């Protein structure tokens, strides 16, 4: 089975969102996505795993398996949990370089940049930044050990 690229997953999300007519329906869908997010073990819900810049509390952890980066996250906000679940769907299991280079155009394509409150938008940017930081850290570890 071939791994899906970031772009293919983004296209799938854009397609899923195009099925909804109203923003109420889109928000419901985002909340549903958040409910499906696997539970983050409480051992990871510590201050050093918190995403800075989010109004809500968001915990994000990353691990590397082989040449791929995998994320787990949780939030105390149902909307934010849905947003992070989409980011995980797009970025988790990808190579560090691909994560760092990802444009994540789906965020704008599904209307997130215009429909989120400014504080949520800032939080979304902070989550993306943190995910890319983890990928960069793994990449730098490779360089220093290689």
What is the topology?
Blueprint: H1 6-18, H2 23-35, E1 58-65, E2 68-75, H3 78-91, E3 94-95, H4 96-101, H5 106-109, H6 112-115, H7 118-145
Antiparallel strand pairs: 1-2, 2-3
Q: Can you give me a brief rundown of this structure?
A:
With 146 residues, the chain is an alpha+beta fold. It has seven helices and three strands.
Key descriptive features of the protein:
globular, alpha+beta, 3 strands, 12% strand, 146 residues, three-stranded antiparallel β-sheet
Tell me what you see in this structure.
The chain is an alpha+beta fold and 146 residues long. Helix content is 56%, strand content 12%. It has helices spanning 6-18, 23-35, 78-91, 96-101, 106-109, 112-115, 118-145; strands at residues 58-65, 68-75, 94-95. The chain has a three-stranded antiparallel β-sheet with strand order 1-2-3. Helix 1 crosses helix 3 (78-91), helix 2 packs across helix 3 (78-91) and helix 3 runs parallel beside helix 7 (118-145). It is globular and about 50 Å long. The model has no long low-confidence stretch (mean pLDDT 93).
């Amino acid at each position: 089975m071939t791994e899906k690229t970031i772009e293919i997953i983004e296209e799938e999300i854009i397609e899923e969102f195009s099925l909804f007519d109203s923003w109420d329906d889109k928000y419901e869908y985002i909340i549903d996505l958040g409910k499906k997010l696997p539970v983050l073990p409480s051992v990871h819900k510590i201050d050093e795993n918190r995403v800075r810049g989010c109004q809500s509390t968001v915990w994000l952890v990353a691990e590397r398996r082989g040449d791929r980066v995998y994320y787990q996250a949780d939030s105390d906000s149902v909307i934010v949990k849905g947003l992070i679940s989409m980011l995980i769907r797009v970025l988790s299991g990808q190579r560090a370089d691909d994560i760092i280079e990802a444009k994540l155009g789906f965020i704008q394509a599904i209307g997130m940049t215009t429909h989120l409150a400014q504080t949520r938008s800032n939080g979304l940017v902070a989550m993306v930044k943190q995910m890319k930081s983890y990928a960069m850290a793994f990449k730098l570890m490779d360089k220093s050990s290689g």
